[in-house]
Amino acid sequence: MSTSVLLTLDVPKEYVKLTEYGVWADFMFAMQYTKESNPLEIDISPDGEITQLRLNQIIADLQRQRRPWSYRVPQAILEEIRPEWLVRYKKVEGRRKF
After folding, report:
1. Rounded to 5°, angle at Cα 26 from 22 and 28
2. Burial of 48 (0-12, 13-18, 19+ CB in 10 A)
3. What's the CA gap between 65 and 12, in Å, rounded?
4. What is the DSSP annotation of 11-59?
5. Residues facing 78 on adjacent strands
6. pLDDT at position 57
């Protein structure tokens, strides 16, 4: 049996970044082909699947914040979670949909 913890946070607006889910997924996929010394630079990509130009386009898209209704499938990203943002937490046993 697995255990999860549901956190309810009160995060100041300036710490919430929105991304398009598909663009974030593309970014995560591309990370496997980047250099360890510089994760913003492509090392080797099989069949040219991810080029440096494409990685740059993905990063530029992620950095450009749009209005919430401009995203087809919005995703919120937090760079950090600070203890003072915690409103409450709840231990959730087993598999449960929220």
Report:
1. 115
2. exposed
3. 16
4. --GGGEEEEEHHHHHHHHHHGGGB-SS-TTSB---GGG-S-HHHHHHHH
5. 16
6. 95
Terminal alpha carbon distance of the chain: 17
Token pair for 63:
């950095």
pLDDT in tens, 46-85: 777 888 999 999 999 999 999 989 999 999 999 999 999 9
| CA 23 to chain CA centroid, nearest Å | 9
Distance CA 74, CA 79 (A): 16
- Please state the pTM of the whole predicted model: 0.71
Instruction: Answer for the pair 91, 5: CB distance below 8 angstroms, yes or no.
Output: yes
Q: Is residue 27 a contact partner of residue 62, using CB atoms and an 8 Å limit?
A: yes
Distance CA 48, CA 38 (A): 19
